[in-house]
């Protein structure tokens, strides 16, 4: 399976946190900032880094931005640079553009520009966002400790009509399904072995980070 490629534009606290977590999750990350010092500081930890003004189309083209699967605009306090960069990324045909908003009005503008996802850092930690970007069926992610995580996973067709006994996640992956949010809004707490998962149900899973990543790969059929 091809490794996912991300560009993180803006290497401040949020962008750096996001970029490092994407690397930990096995992705290739191009880090971009117009501040040479910020680029030098994180350079050794990312796949590639470059100093560039991303409000200029030629600069974006020259760094190979069109090769990435997803570009995250994490520019700090310059709303104009954030908006211009987002416009250029959409015009260049980047498959997925995610942008950090500094305010609700800024977020509304980004939505109108066609940005695929707007992030408000006050509500979204870099680590949580990184996990959601890499795992399309991972709806939410809460790190309980350095080892244990609670995650919400959307059940795919591959899991449909299987009971928890058949899925046997504890024996196969080491993690446990502790609740199921059914499509009809019914919530099953501490489901029994006979409870059946249907496509579109949301499974609340607890386990180590590695166990949940293994199970999520199985959900995707990878």
Layout of helices and strands:
Elements (H helix, E strand, L loop, with lengths): L4 E5 L3 H12 L3 E6 L2 H7 L5 E4 L5 H6 L7 E4 L5 H13 L4 E5 L3 H9 L4 E3 L6 H9 L3 E6 L4 E7 L7 E2 H4 L1 H4 L3 E6 L5 E3 L6 E2 L4 E7 H12 L2
What distinguishing features does this structure have?
Alpha-Beta Plaits; five-stranded antiparallel β-sheet; 9 helices; 222 residues; Rossmann fold; 27% strand; alpha/beta
Describe this structure in words.
Helix content is 34%, strand content 27%. It has helices at 13-24, 36-42, 57-62, 79-91, 104-112, 126-134, 164-167, 169-172, 209-220, and strands at 5-9, 28-33, 48-51, 70-73, 96-100, 117-119, 138-143, 148-154, 162-163, 176-181, 187-189, 196-197, 202-208. Helix 1 (13-24) packs across helix 6 (126-134). It has two domains: 5-133, NAD(P)-binding Rossmann-like Domain (Rossmann fold, 3-Layer(aba) Sandwich), CATH 3.40.50.720; 136-220, 2-Layer Sandwich (Alpha-Beta Plaits), CATH 3.30.70. The protein is of the alpha/beta class and 222 residues long. The model has no long low-confidence stretch (mean pLDDT 86). The chain has nine helices and 13 strands.
């Amino acid at each position: 399976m091809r490794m996912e490629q991300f560009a993180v534009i803006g290497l401040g606290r949020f962008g750096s946190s996001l970029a490092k977590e994407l690397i930990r999750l096995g992705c290739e990350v191009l880090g971009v900032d117009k501040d040479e010092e910020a680029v030098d500081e994180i350079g050794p930890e990312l796949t590639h880094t470059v100093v560039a003004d991303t409000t200029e189309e030629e600069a974006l083209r020259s760094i190979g931005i069109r090769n990435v699967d997803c570009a995250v605009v994490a520019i700090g306090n310059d709303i104009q640079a954030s908006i211009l960069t987002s416009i250029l990324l959409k015009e260049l045909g980047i498959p997925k553009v995610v942008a950090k908003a500094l305010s609700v009005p800024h977020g509304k503008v980004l939505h109108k520009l066609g940005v695929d996802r707007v992030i408000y850092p006050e509500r979204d930690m870099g680590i949580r966002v990184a996990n959601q970007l890499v795992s399309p069926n991972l709806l939410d992610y809460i790190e309980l400790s350095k080892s244990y995580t609670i995650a919400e996973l959307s059940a795919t067709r591959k899991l449909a009509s299987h009971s928890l006994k058949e899925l046997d996640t504890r024996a196969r992956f080491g993690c446990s399904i502790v609740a199921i949010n059914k499509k009809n809004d019914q919530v099953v707490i501490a489901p029994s072995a006979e409870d059946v998962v249907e496509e579109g149900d949301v499974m609340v899973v607890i386990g180590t980070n590695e166990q949940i990543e293994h199970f999520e790969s199985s959900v995707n059929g990878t």
